[in-house]
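Slide 14.
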Amino acid sequence: MKTGPTPGRPEIDAVVIGRNEGARLIACLGSLKGRARRIVYVDSGSSDGSVAAAGAAGAEVVALDMARPFTAARARNAGLEQLGDGADFVQLVDGDCTVAPGWLDTAAAFLAAHPEAAVACGRRREDHPEASVYNRLCDREWDTPVGEAAACGGDALVRRAALVSVGGFRDGLIAGEEPELCLRLRRAGWTVWRLDAEMTRHDARILRLGQWWQRSRRAGHAFAEGAHLHGAGPERHWVKETRRALAWGVALPLAILVAALLTPWAGLALLIYPAQVLRLAARDSRPGRWEAALFTVLGKFAEAQGVVDFHLRRWIGRRRGILEYK
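Slide 15: predicted structure.
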C-alpha cells in the first residue's frame, strides 16, 4: 500500500504483523492509510482470509513460510526486508492495534530532532479494559514512565538505520524480542524514548484465567531467555525478574512444603503471599492497585513455569514454539 506522507514530515513506512486478526487487521491498516508511505502486512499462517483482506485493502502482503518456526521477531524482520531501502522511519505495529491520529507526525518529529534516538513509542491503551480484569491489567502494563526508556513494546516508530546497524530483531526469540533489540541498540549508542502522546489502541481480548496464565508463562520464558543471553552484561538484563519468579514461584513454595512435613505450623509461612499483596498494593497509588497486586503475586507461579520450561528445554536441546494466549 503506497500513500502520500504529510507535507514537511519525513517519509514513514509501516510493518504490520498478525495472524487471524479479522476485522482488527482491517482497522489497523485503515489507521495507517494516508499516513504511511508503504504498508507491508506480514501474515503468519492465517486461516480467516486475512491475506486476501489485506491485499484488497492495498497492503503489500508477505506470507511467512510456516515450515519454519514462527516468531513475531521473524515476522517483523520479514516486513523490514520487504521494504528494503525505504523510508528513514518505520512504524512497527501489531495487527490487533490501531494507530492514533497524529502519532506518526509526533514521533517522526521527535526522531528527526533527536538523531541519537533509535525508537520512539507512546501510550498504548486497551480498547475494552472494562471487559475483564486481564484487559485492565494489560492497560496498566502499557502505562510506563515518559522519558528515556530501556525498552519499547511491539508498537513503535523506529529509525531504519539504527535497526540495520544492530542486525534487526533476533529471529529465534518467541517473546521479549523488543527489549532484547533495545538492549543491543543502547549498547551501540542509540537511545529509546517513551513520548507523552497517544500511540495505539490494542484489543487484548483476554477474558479467561487460562489466557492470562499463558501470557504470564510466556513472560517468564522471555525473562529466562533474556537473562541467559545478556544477563552477564552490565545491564543484568532480566536477571532480577527471573530470580524473582523462581523465588516466589518455586523456591519459597518448596521450602514451605518441606518445612510443613516437619512441623504443621510451618504452613503459616504461606501468609507471606497475602502479605506481599498488601505490600505491593500499599506502594501503588493508581486505580486498580489491589487487583494488580494480587495478579502480580499470582503471576509469579506462571512466570516460574516459563523460566523452568526454558531451562529444561535448553538443557535437552529442544527449543519451544510460540506460546499463544488468543
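Speaker note: Residues 120 and 193 are 5 Å apart (CA to CA).
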